[in-house]
Structures are given as C-alpha cells and as structure tokens.
Design brief:
The complex is a heterodimer.
Chain A lengths: L1 H10 L8 H7 L1 H30 L16 H7 L2 H32 L6 H13 L2 H11 L6 H8 L15 H28 L4 H9 L4 H29 L3 H6 L11 H11 L3 H9 L1 H27 L1
Chain B lengths: L1 H13 L1 H9 L12 H30 L3 H4 L16 H8 L3 H33 L4 H12 L7 H11 L5 H25 L3 H9 L4 H12 L1 H17 L2 H6 L8 H8 L1 E2 L2 E2 L1 H21 L1 H13 L1
Antiparallel strand pairs in B: 1-2
The chains are: A mainly alpha, B mainly alpha.
Chain lengths: 321, 311
C-alpha cells in the first residue's frame, strides 16, 4: 500500500509535456540509476573488469611489461603437470577442510559456552573477538615468533613439562609437516572468534522457553542441542560456514607472513603460489591461471555449504505443512 | 518424533516479538537454577578459561617480547621467558624515532579513512536505491552485489595490478584507495540495506507529500535515522582496510608508501636476523588503533558482523 502511494505521487501527470530533463530527475528507473552510479562504477572498473581480464590473461602468456599472446589452455596444461601446483592444490583443500571443520566445532562450542549466564558476559565476549580485530598479518608475525625454530616458547613449555628433550627441539617451521600444522593452527586461532560470535548472535534469538519445554518433556542436554538448538541455528550456520570456507580457501596473508610457502613449498596455498609465480616470477599469465583454477573449487564450496544446508532447512519446512 | 520436535518448537521462535523479548532478557534465570556451581565450573568455566587463554596468549607474548631487552630474547632457558625482569622501551623508541613507522601508520590511516569514506557514500546511495526507489531490476542488482562480496581479492590481484599500471596509479596511495572499495561496497551496501528496511515508509511518504525530492529525503530523513548502521559500516570497513594485505603488497613497492601490515613483514628483516623486539612492538602498535576503536564501539562492531551474516 505504501508503495502504491509513492507510485501515485510520481505518476502524477506533469503540467504539459514532461521534458526529458524532468524525466531524468523524477522517473523511478532513471533515479535509481543515478543513485547506483558510484557503487557500480567502482565495482565494474575494479571488480568485474579485472575478473574478466584475469580470465583472459589465464589463456595468454602475459609477462610483466608485455601483453600476452593467446595460447589457449597451455597454462593449464603446464600446471596439471607441475608438482608444485598439484601440491598447493592438495594442501589448499586439506587446509580448508581441516581448518573449517575445527573452526566450526570449537566456534560452536565456544558460542554455546558464552550463551550461558556468565558474570562479565559482555566483557568476555569482547575479549574473545580480539583475534579477529587485530590485522591477520600482525598476529601471524606473533605466531611466527611463537613457533620460531630456535626460540619457540612452545618448545620451552614442552621441555619444562618434560615432554620433549631440550637437546632435540621441535623444528616447527623447518619441517614441512609441522609447518603445515602450524599454519592450520594459526588459521583456526584467527577464525574461531568470527564463528563463535556470529553463532552466539544466532543462539540468542532462540527462546529459552523452548529449552524449558523440551526439558519438561524429558530431553537430555544432548537432545536439547540436537533437536532444538541445531535446527534453529541451521540457516545461520550455512551462511557463516560459506563465508568461512570461502575465506579459508583463498587465504593469502597468513601464509605469506608466516612461511611464504616454505619449507620446500609445503605450505603454499593456491593464492600464495599465484602471487609467487605471477608477481614475483613475472609470469602474469601463469599466475592468473592459478588464480582462475580456484574458481571452480570456490563455486563448489559455495554450492555445497549453501545448498546442502539450505535443503535441510527446506526439508524441515516442508514436513511442517 | 524428531522432526516434530524440531518443527513444533520452531513456530514460537518464528513469531517475532515474543521470542525477541524473551531472548533479549538476559537477566532471566531460565533453567540455570538447575545447574550447581561445581557442575558449571567443570562444564563452562574451565573450558571457557582454556579457550580464552589460548586466544589471548599470542598478544601477551607479543607484549612481553616487545619490552624485553635483546639479550633476554635469545636466552629462553636462562630465566622464565614468560616474565620480564628489566622491561625496556627501547624497541618502541627505535620503532617510532629511528624507522619509517610513523609514515606507514599515517599511510594506513589515510588509505583506510579515504577508502571507507568513498565506500560508505557509494553504499548509502546504492542501498537507498535498492531498498526504497526500487527501480526495475533492483532485486537482481542486490543479488549481484552480494555475489561481488564473495569474489575474493586473491583471484583479482594479478589482473588488477596490470590495470593499476595502465591507469598510472602504481605505487601511489590512490591504487589502494580506489581498489579497497570493491571489497567494502558490497559489504556496506548489504549491511545498510538491512538498516534502511527498518525505517518506516510513512516517514518518506510524508516527506514526498510535502514536496521533498528523493535526495532531500535521503539526506534529511534516512541518513539521520540510520546513524547506528553507518557507524557499524564505518567501523567494520575501516577494520577491513587496515587489515588488507594482498593489494597493498602488490600495488605498493617503495618503502615510504607502504602500509603497516606490508611494511612489518618486509622491512624488519635484515638478511636472516629478525629484529624480534621491534617486530613485535610494530605489530602491537599497528593493532592498537583498531583495538581502541573496537573498545569504544563493541556493540556496533558485533552488529555489523552479525548483521551482514543474517541478511
């Protein structure tokens, strides 16, 4: 109704023939267009155009300072035989999968803990968010130092507890497998607050009387969680995890600040490998090809987490009618 | 049984006002009287304590490292590394007076403020047009803007770097000021759309009847009412700018033009000797502006984060 009223005021016939200039000022579609111009200009110039150009570059042999020639799928053929690329691809998938799963588990657990009646609740909540506020690179630098090969405080702690021997410290950043574990740990550390706080916001919209009712019906704590909390939280989990998977998969700064892909390329993600080949190595075409090969995985991840969880919601909604 | 429990219970939660008032009431005891203190200690306080300690330890370690004298840094087993016996501010002094750190801090601030400001202006206009002018195809455009939010910078930086070269922006702050909005506009627009939808239509109708133009409505009615949303968008966008790394690393090459995150990882490493004290002091000082801002606007920050997700 409100809409109709607005429309009527605008549809009021102009005295005489409305000039073209009047049309541009009053017509709903033109007005909308003028309001959209700044945002669209930014997005088209610096997002859509580079996206298209990136796709084009991945089919060329462009180098820094030289426009490339079209080479078809050559870049991708090269990459499919490149063991560094395959390694980065596998590690990116493992990295995303492990980090997202652990982040989700701990984040949800932390959200449930914070949803209790706690003293200083607001304060604890703000403190928990701090890892998310601090720029990733700066906390990555801290992790770099914490897991330093010679002067690691973790090694010191383990020695003090008598778990390892002082003479044979753990080579955190030098050993490929340990380095992979360390970067995954750092990513989890940074991701938990975001998931915990957004899920907490979801939890707070769940009415406590639901739990009271369920408890009266004899539900255990687990059943309370499984049949009350979880179904109500599903939509927000879907969105949060989509974002989390997306940002984990395309992570760059954490790896670059901590290991730069080393040791022996063990911790390269696709984004860091693309930077190394494209910008540092100067092979823009190849770098763009690596970046573009992330797209199918991203789409798959979005589809999976989005539709997978949406369908659950839809199924439950359908059984409701 | 299971589905019926799930769906039956869903209805009251969906009926807005009731559940919101119940959920907002944090002081209600609910069923918490069922929990005894010892039980709660084991199931809530101890795990919470452990998680919080793990989340905060790196900052403690950063702080301790930044005030330790150099010789203590490389001698773990001499004393207790978790404590400092003779704190020194030498690292901070070196950072602030013997390096380009203040310049980098200023660059970061300048870029972040400009990019945030541009993005908010563009987003307010776009969000208003999508939610209120509702031109033909507004829904589609809203969806496309959300999709733009899902395009990560790490697949754009290579083509963007060539574009930046062509526009002649390479190694200037404008390279960052103009590219950061692509990350911020989708987020801010989405957030502000949520805020604008909560402003009653009637206000706008009154203004239209009184002869106000769309522009006057936006400036005199909508924006003043959406101030909390604008603050949320501003703070979150500012944080994202401050945090941005890959564009800054790719588009800026000379030392005095760098931003804090890129400068920290490249300029504090002399060959193989890491100046850990200065590095940690730099990381700490670089995080400080955000933490201070955050401390004043926690609620806005949280609502920005959750608002963008909930939409």
């Amino acid at each position: 109704m409100a809409d109709a009223a607005v429309a009527r005021t605008e549809a009021r016939p102009m005295p005489g023939e409305p000039s073209a200039w009047q049309q541009l000022k009053v017509n709903r579609n033109w007005l909308g267009f003028w309001f959209m111009v700044p945002a669209m200009a930014f997005l088209v110039l610096f997002l859509v155009y580079p996206l298209g150009k990136g796709l084009w570059m991945s089919f060329t042999d462009a180098r820094i300072g030289r426009e490339g020639r079209f080479v078809g799928l050559e870049n991708f053929e090269w990459l499919s035989e490149d063991s560094d690329f395959i390694g980065a691809l596998i590690f990116t998938i493992v990295f995303t999968f492990v980090a997202s799963a652990v982040k989700f588990a701990i984040g949800l657990y932390l959200a449930l803990l914070l949803n209790n009646n706690l003293p200083f609740k607001a304060f604890i909540r703000s403190v928990v968010l701090i890892p998310f506020i601090v720029p990733t690179v700066l906390s990555a630098v801290a992790f770099w130092w914490i897991f330093d090969t010679q002067f690691s405080v973790i090694t010191w702690g383990l020695v003090k507890m008598g778990i390892i021997d002082r003479g044979s410290p753990i080579n955190w950043m030098g050993d490929p497998f340990m380095a992979q574990c360390v970067v995954i740990f750092a990513n989890i550390w940074r991701g938990i607050p975001f998931i915990a706080i957004t899920l907490l916001a979801g939890l707070q919209t769940v009415s406590p009387s639901l739990y009271e009712a369920a408890t009266l019906d004899g539900a255990t704590r687990w059943q309370n969680f499984r049949y009350v909390t979880y179904p109500l939280l599903t939509p927000i989990i879907a969105v949060v995890m989509t974002f989390s998977v997306l940002f984990t998969f395309t992570d760059f700064q954490l790896i670059w600040a901590m290991t730069r892909g080393g040791p022996v390329n063990a911790t390269h993600l696709m984004a860091t490998l693309s930077y190394q080949r494209g910008i540092l190595g100067g092979n823009l075409g190849e770098g763009a090809a690596i970046a573009i090969s992330m797209v199918p995985f991203l789409l798959a991840a979005i589809m999976f987490s989005w539709f997978g969880l949406q369908r659950r919601k839809w199924q439950q909604g359908e059984s409701n009618d | 049984m299971t589905t019926s429990a799930g769906t039956d219970l869903k209805n009251p939660a969906a009926s807005g006002a009731f559940s919101r008032s119940a959920a907002k009431d944090d002081h209600s005891e609910g069923m918490s009287y069922l929990e005894s203190l010892p039980r709660k200690t084991v199931t809530v306080y101890i795990p919470l304590f452990i998680i919080v300690v793990v989340l905060l330890f790196p900052f403690y370690w950063m702080f301790i490292t930044s005030i330790k004298p150099d010789q203590d840094l490389l001698d773990l087993h001499g004393g207790n590394p978790l404590w400092v016996s003779e704190p020194t501010f030498r690292h901070f002094y070196k950072l602030l007076f013997e390096s380009n750190y203040p310049t980098w801090l200023w660059n970061t601030m300048f870029v972040a403020v400009c990019a945030t400001f541009l993005s908010i202006v563009a987003s307010v206009l776009a969000a208003y047009a999508i939610t209120r002018i509702r031109y033909k195809g507004a829904q589609t455009v809203g969806g496309l803007i959300f999709l733009a939010y899902l395009v990560p910078p790490s697949i754009l930086f290579i083509p963007l770097s060539t574009i930046i070269h062509v526009y002649g922006l390479f190694d200037t702050p404008f390279a960052l000021i103009l590219t950061y909005p692509t990350i911020l506009i989708p987020f801010c627009t989405w957030l502000l759309m949520g805020y604008f939808k909560t402003i009653p239509y009637e206000l706008e109708e009154c203004a239209l009847i009184d002869g106000a133009s769309r522009w006057q409505i936006l400036v005199k009615i909508i924006i003043p009412l959406a101030v909390p949303g604008l603050i949320s968008a501003f703070i979150f966008a500012f944080t994202l700018c401050w945090n941005e790394f890959i564009y800054a690393l790719t588009f800026i090459s000379s030392n005095p033009n760098k931003t804090v995150p890129t400068a920290i990882v490249s300029e504090f490493v002399d060959g193989d000797v890491f100046r850990w004290g200065s590095l940690m002091a730099g990381a700490l000082v670089g995080s400080l502006p955000l933490v201070i801002l955050y401390a004043f606007f926690v609620e806005h920050y949280v609502s920005a984060m959750t608002g963008a997700v909930k939409e």
